Structures are given as structure tokens and as C-alpha cells.
Amino acid sequence: MSKPRFPRIAAALTALAMLALGGCGGTAQTAPPPVTAGAGERVVTDAEGNSIRVPAHPERVVTLSEPTLDGMLALGALPIGTTAGRGQSGVPNYLADLAADLPILGGIAQPNFEAIGAAKPDLILTDGTSINNNPPVLAALGKIAPVVYTGYAGGDWRANLRITADALNLAAVGEQIIADYDASVGAAKAQLAAYADSTFSIVRWQGNSASVILKELLPGRALEDLGLKRPADQDRVGRGHSEPVSLENLKSIDADYLFFGTLGGSSVGNPSAGGGTGVESARQALREASLVPGFTELDAYKQDRIILVDGSAWTSTGGPLLMKRLVADVVEALG
Predict the structure, then answer these.
(1) Which end of the chain, N or C, is more open, meaning fewer C-beta atoms within 10 Å of its C-beta?
(2) Residue 110: which of 264, 218, 272, 238 has the closest Cα?
(3) Using an 8 Å Cβ cutoff, are 102 and 91 in contact?
(4) Euclidean distance between CA atoms 263 and 6, whole angstroms
(5) Residues whose CB falls within 8 Å of the CB of residue 172, separated by 6 or more in sequence, listed in order
(6) Where on the phi/psi map is residue 40: left (φ > 0), alpha (ψ -120 to 50), or beta?
(7) Dihedral sign, Cα of residue 291, residue 292, residue 296, residue 297
(8) What SS3 string covers the chain?
(9) Who contacts 128 (Cβ-Cβ below 8 Å, separation ≥6)?
(10) Who contacts 31 (Cβ-Cβ below 8 Å, separation ≥6)?
(11) Residue-wise pLDDT tens digits, 275-301
């Protein structure tokens, strides 16, 4: 007969209590030793300030978010697997030309641990747009390979890229990407000077309702970088995701110009529910929106200033490739 486990649990709890009492008594706490790199390794600092030991030259990297996939591709590297784009069954549509054939190892916030383990990665990159700093999930992933947490939902894409680049030992390449983006924005702003007094709204339409993209998300950051103004109701930072708008407040999505996209009827939890994302899907969504009371009364609709966009780029998240795409879309639409 096996021995009962309860005495062991009681002993463990007693030990923890003694440690806690020792801390209350003012005993000096010994700081954990610094993380040091072994042969063929480097130490990088993640977004949480943790020191992570990673391979000096990772060769089998898994990305578990849109920003880390985007950043890795921008750096000229290809992961061995990734997660599906938000509300999509494959990689984000805007990255399909670079990564359509990558194995899908789960969805946003839903990593497939078995598939990730079977891929035998030597490094896992993720961030708050996907796993959202979920300690049990991060701990489970950490048993498969080193995990570098690169940033937060609504965080600075540059900071996310810098940590991604550092983890891949490509920091100099990352800095060049940022410099190139800043230069392209400077050139684009000059082309858009005529729109200095106009306002621009970014809307995701799904089903029969709208959500707005605010200033902390990458499309909002792109407009701000380009010096384009937002309507008063959207001239603010949100909570790191699109913000639903009730039909009673539909007028709040209005602006002189309205960037309009969709992810179809799908969502993070149900990516197969009609998740069209491209311009044609946006066109269909606009037809559906025009049947909703009040939509055709919007000034942007009446002035024919609704700009149809790919929802996988304009109503989701990503990294430097997305930022480059957003700037190009604005210049093409307005320039």
C-alpha cells in the first residue's frame, strides 16, 4: 500500500510558513544569483525585466503572436512554426506571401503544447497580444524551450522588435529596420500635408456592429506617425484592443475619412466562422453595414470617403512589416 501524501503536504506547508516567519523577522534575503550564459548561449532581458538564457544563434524558433512573427520575418528569419492570425485559420493575411506555408501550432491565446513540443524548438517568442503574461502557460512553454516575452498588448512595437531582435542575436538589423521606417514616415508625411485639417477613423465591422481602433494599436500609431488627426471620440489611448461601439453611439465612428476593414464573423475563439479579411471582405461588410440604421447618415459614407482595407492589417496587430504596410496603404489611398 502506498504511503499517504498528506504528511508531505503538511511538511511543505510548515516549511513555507517558517520561511515566511523568517522574512518577517528581518533576516537579510539573499538575492538570486545572476543568470549567466553557458557555452553557445547568450542572456537577454525580456519585457518583464527577466534574464533569459537563450541559444547564441537560435535555429528552431517558434513565434506565438502576430508581432513576434512579423518581427522575425522583418529581420530576415523564418520560424519553424507559428500561431494563426487573430480570427483567422492561417497566418495573418498580410503576411501570407512570406509565411503561408508555416506550420500552425495553435491560435491566439491557444497554443497547442503538443504540437509545439513535437516541433522541438530551441527558442519560443511570445507577447501580451497572445498569451497575455499567463504564468501557467509560460511555465508550460518554458519546459519545452526558453521563452522570451517580448512586449504587451498596446505596447510600443519598436520595443517589441528590439527584444525580438536581441533574442535572435540580430539587434543591429532591428535598429536598421526602425531607422528605415522612420525615414519612410518622414517622406510620407510630406505627401499628406493637404490632409492636416482632416480627421480619420479606423473601424472594424463584424456582424452588425462596429469597433474602433484607438491610438495605442498599430494602425492608430501609424496615423499618429503620419500626423493625421483622429475624431475627438478616438483621440485617446485604449486598453490594447479594439473598442466596441453600440449602435446607439454609431455616430462616434464618423470622421472626414474612415478606414474600414473586417475579420468577417470570426473571432479569437472561433476563427473558422467566416473569417474573411481582405478588401473584398471589407466591401461585403460595408454592404451589410449600410443596412444598419444610422450608418448611411455618417458623413464619411455620404461623402464617399470610406476607404476599404485588409482587416488582418488594419484591425489587428503586428510589427514593422505591418507598420510599413499601413503607411503604404495610407499613401496609396490619399497621396
Answers:
(1) N
(2) 272
(3) yes
(4) 52
(5) none
(6) left
(7) positive
(8) CCCCCHHHHHHHHHHHHHHHHHHHCCCCCCCCCCCCCCCCEEEEECCCCCEEEEECCCCCEEECCHHHHHHHHHCCCCCCEECCCCCCCCCCHHHHHHHCCCCECEECCEECHHHHHHHCCCEEEECCCCCCCCHHHHHHHHCCCCEEECCCCCCCHHHHHHHHHHHCCCHHHHHHHHHHHHHHHHHHHHHCHHHCCCEEEEEEEECCEEEECCCCCHHHHHHHHCCCECCHHHCCCCCCCCEEECHHHHHHHCCCEEEEECECECECCECCCCCCCCHHHHHHHHHHHCCCCCHHHCHHHHCCCEEECCHHHHCCCCCHHHHHHHHHHHHHHHC
(9) 47, 149, 151, 152, 153, 155, 240
(10) none
(11) 678 999 999 999 999 999 999 999 999
Q: Which residues on neighbouring strands pair with residue 229, listed in sequence order?
A: 199
Question: Over pLDDT 90: what percentage of the chain?
Answer: 77
Residue matched to cell numbers 498569451: 131
Q: What CA–CA distance (Å, rounded) separates 122 from 56?
A: 10
What pLDDT score does 157 carry? 97
Distance separating alpha carbons of residues 278 and 269, to the nearest angstrom: 20
How many C-beta neighbours within 10 Å does residue 4 have?
8
